[in-house]
Amino acid sequence: MKIGLFFRLTVAIGIGSTSGIGGTGLAAETMPNLPPTEIVTRVLQANLSVQAAAGQVRVEEANRSRLEAGQYEWNVRLGGQQRRSKPATGTDERFNEWNAAIERPLRLPGKGRLDGELGAAGVALAETAHGDALHEASRNLLKSWFIWLKESASAAQWSEQFALLDKQSKGIQRRQQLGDAARLESIQAAAALAQAEAALAQAKVRQQMAGEDLRRRYPGLPLVTENTIAEPTPIEGNEADWINAILEHSHELDLARGETQRAQIVAGRASRDRMPDPTIGLHVSRERAGEDQIFGAYISIPLPGGARRAGSDAALAQADVAGRREAFTTQKITAESAMLYQSANAAFSTWQASRSAAERLGQAADMTARAYQLGEGSLNDLLAARRLANEAQLSARLIQLEALELRYRLRLDAHRLWVMDEEKHASD
User: Fold this and answer.
1) Does residue 284 belong to any structural domain of this protein?
2) How many domains does the chain have?
3) Parent domain of 56
4) Domain containing 226 — which CATH number?
5) For the chain, which ranges sit under pLDDT 50?
6) pTM higher than 0.90 for the full model?
7) How far is the CA of 215 from the CAs of 140, 143, 166, 211, in angstroms?
8) Which whole-number Å values give the CA distances from 314 to 263, 317, 320, 321, in the listed order?
9) What is the pLDDT of residue 95?
10) Residue 99 forms part of a structural domain
11) Among 140, 361, 388, 425, which is most buried by a count of CB atoms within 10 Å?
């Protein structure tokens, strides 16, 4: 009994990468049972989380300009006063006086460069976060897509089972009318048909819900149908090659590294801030109604205290924390990548075994049906054989899709599938 061709679902043929994994050449691979790459690209770029991440890049670009300019602005001070003089003899004298000053803090050498590096690090982090949002949206789309495929497979399988049992029930009814079958058999066949009908109705509801979820989460993604499911193939390359490829392209790890670099820059900037920036200014005043005119310059230097030292120490500690988080992220991604590779590898063998079991149980059900037609078996035996064959076929189809999904997920994490961000390597 064939397992590969079983229902109509979305299939889009694309060409996979020809890149090597750790020196192992990957042949050009088609991507069946996936929507067209150009449509996926358009849908993901329109995703709200991706657009929000793109907006954050603009925020950090503006923040970089702010840091490069610095909060070192000219400040103007104006003042006025009235002087009252009481000479020993004569009448009191009153004078209207005024003063003005212009001043500006000076950024000490080295701080401007660090501020520029800090702004650039923020932009780089935002760009990496944008790539990470795009990658996470791709993961979620792939997961939702295969949920829909699996529910479609389940609905198709139960539709086939219902059609088979319906044909069988009608045949038994005709045999009963001819006096060749007992009424109990007709009741048993009708009961089995009713159970299949209920299971089919539930499967169709789940399929509709999965399709509706896809339409709402990813507007514009067509749920077009085809008639084949691709057979999974073994995973090329070894575990270490795939882990290295995933680590090389991991946005999550790049984010952790970027946070470490930015924390180190912040620590360096805080260390420089232990020496306060001076403020220089010029002032002019007019006193005693113009009898005295004063011009001068001044410099103001804050005296550093414990707060500056504590801020520098905190920044250094935060840089150490960021470094440890980077190490933890590397460890986590390595473990997750190893599990994904092993799962994808095992899924292929599991699918082969389940396909073989489904074929054998299907053959057994066909043989039981022929025996029943010849009067050599009971209807209970036939219904049990049909039920086992149906369960095995459904399981094989779902495992087949699971193997495809895991393979695509492995390629997606290694940036061998739907590469849409600007980080494209020459090997892709």
Assistant:
1) no
2) 1
3) 20-72+108-276+306-413
4) 1.20.1600.10
5) 1-20, 22-28, 422-428
6) no
7) 13, 14, 33, 6
8) 11, 5, 10, 10
9) 84
10) no
11) 361
